[in-house]
Fold:
Amino acid sequence: MTGDVTTASKEQAAEWLSNLGKQRNGSKTEYANMVKDLETGLVDAGYDLNSEYAKSQLELLKKSGESAATITEDQMAMILERYPELIDVVHLASGQMISETANASQYLIEDNEKLVESFGNFSQAVKEAADSNKKEIALTLDQSNAFGSFWNDLILDPKTGEVSTNAQEEVNKAAKSEKGWNQLMWISKDANVSSDVKMMIAEAAIANGKWEQMSFTEQQALLDSNVTQTMTQTLQAKGYWEKLTFDQKKAVIESNTPEMMAETVFNIGLWNELQPEVKELDAQNQKLISAVGQSEEKMADWKKIPDTVKQFQGENYDLLTKIYESNENFKRWQSIPNDEKIMLAENTDLLEKVATSKEVYGAWEKMPMTEKMMLGNNTDLSSKVFASTETMNAWIKLDPQIKALVAENQDLMAKVEDGTLSIDTFNKNEPGLKTLLGDATSVINQSIQAETALSNFHNNNPKNKILTGDSTNVQNASRTGVGSVNNFERATAKVKYLKAVDDASWNAGKATGAVQTFGRQGDKKITLTTVTKNITQWITEKFTKNATGTNFHPGGLAMVNDQRGAMYRELVQHPTGETYIPQGRNVMLDLPRGSKVYTAAQTKQMVPRYAEGVGIPKNSTLVKNLEAVNNRNIETTTVIQNDNRELVSLMRQMLNTIARLKPEINVNTQGNIEDLDLRNLNSDLGWLAQIEGGGLGG
Structure:
């Protein structure tokens, strides 16, 4: 499935959309199985599924699954942006063609609309385009009959073939003539005509004074809900209809839900006069509107609230009723900026506390906007902060850095261990954290352990230092070996054998091992914390291979992408949640303690490739992360530049001594030091040091 969406035909786009739906459905099933497998593995490994570690693993898997779903949804959105009408053709969640589902088609279309809403801001334009396209289709009639042709000529732009921006005006003009009105009436009686078309005809009838000339049956046929039919009839029967303006009449016929009609009745000033009819509506916002009507000030405030704010408040009628019923709450509500009301739309618990509590409002008002956003976007944290006066005061006294970390649900102890957060800062804020988050005994113990561990580390490990050819440890060992051999040569024992356990073999072997290890080190950037250990020990302790993955890296250098075969790239996750896939093989990284490395197989399962797809959007989260990784220049801190000239000189002295002891061994030590093959010298020394019996004697 390849190609450019912008040039694809509608048939191709429908096929791609169907395949993406099937892929998305399959990914959800696979994700569910992966969660089950991970939970089983954690339990088998002895972890409680409610532990922080288990939760972090499950959260990582969730984020990976969401990343894959986002890629699919972004591609769906691209297709729907090009062909919005396909939202009524393909069921996005399964890939099934809606025309093949018979009686379930309407349900699948509604399910599509809900799914598109979940796509995010990018898909909002897609949804709006789809809605606009659906409305355009609903307003267009079949050209095969005279009435359809007449209607389309009225509403369509002859240049673009789309619904004209002044379509309603053209319909209103047509209704002025008897011929035009009769044609409109014939159209309204067609059972296949949409309610949108009928609503335009009804508006034209009201605009031209034709409404009062229509029979009750004709009027009712143009209205698409029982609510509008009943209220329109009531207004006419009680003599209110004739007193309404054109805009008020239009508002009445467009109010097709109990809640919309209740607000319309209130806005046209007939709330008290039509109370029996209003009660029969059984509108959910009835108490709210009654509260708003308590004073002119409240009515004026309600009418001036932007539609965007009302839209974000949704159906929070109980909360809004509580606000408008109390003058004190209403005053606080008025002082809250509209952007904050929108921000708190999904955190109704916090919005209610701010609007209805003098104490909470006072604390909220003094907070900087950054903190308001932290709490507004985190319902769990805000409920803890504003649980009591004590918790509010505890939050206010916290260090800003602590507040940010808590708001992001970060592991504070991990931040202490990696140096992001100082132990001193943590200790100063610990009482407030305990008040805010509960008993932190376990956290305190971990803090003490971390502090002790850090102190021990600094006591036992000097600061990083640059090793530029400073092979003192190896050279000293080599000199010891040469000295021991020379002393042995000068000895006056009757028979000179170098065997068993003696100073020469031990020190020569020790030197050889160190030389071999050091000689294999090329120029590279690494970090050393001590030079008191020999190179072999350092490599063993500091370099961790991860071909089989790891759930908890102890911290320090690690090699990733070291798995053999074509599939070798491994996903890395830091304790902070940062996730990326390094480029290239055998990549050396300095990973913080607690990092996780997933095997290549696990990485492929969590982040599948979509090379055969219609194209991954450049602005998708995953692509941005991968590009950042590909561009990342992994740097370390210390350069080792091996200058082996002095070492080679010492080794040549050793070989000269050995040659004098064992003439039958052909040792070539001639030529410049630079010409000597260091690896061959290492090999010779290694062979000589491993002669059976541990010596050089016969």
Q: What stands out?
A: The mean pLDDT is 74.
